[in-house]
Amino acid sequence: MSSGSAIRGSRAGAGPSGEAVRGEVCPRVQVSYYCANGHITQPSFAVDAQIPEQWECMKCGLPANLDQRNPPPPPKTQPYKTHLAYVKERRSSKEAHAILEEALSHLKDRRARGEVIY
Ligand SMILES: [Zn+2]
To answer: Which stretches of sequence are listed as region Disordered (predicted)?
Structure first.
């Protein structure tokens, strides 16, 4: 007759008690990256890892590189374009002027006929 109480408390798959479960410890190197704002970001890499030439600044998000005296320039951010800006891109100012003139002459005609009072 087995009581079954011996099974209770056993942990399937558990390692020997006292075993530290840690990540693999490997030698690391800390690298300094400099951004255009003068921030220094110092991630660490495994010594055998490929050190990237650029890193993102932890403080401002600008690209940073290993050259303190020559950090990468801030990326040119595309400003938000208005609808008018897109229209201007599609039409030359000459065309726009012609369109405006046409609209104005229509308006003048209508005004001359008394259709528009302003
Ligand atoms: Zn920065």
So the answer is: 1-22
Domain range holding 93?
83-112
Q: Is residue 99 part of a domain?
A: yes
35 labelled binding-site residue: yes
Please report, in angstroms and rounded to a whole number, the separation of the first and last CA atoms in the chain: 108
Res. 50 pLDDT band, cuts 50 70 90: very high
In a domain, 36, yes or no: yes
Beta-carbon count within 10 A of 71 CB: 21
Q: Structurally, how many domains does the chain consist of?
A: 2
What's the pLDDT tens digit per position in 21-30?
Answer: 566 678 999 9
Check: pTM over 0.70? Answer yes or no: no
CA of 34 to the centre of ligand 1 (A): 7
Question: How much distance in Å is there from the Cα of 116 to the middle of ligand 1?
Answer: 59
Give me ligand 1 centre to Cα 63, in Å: 8
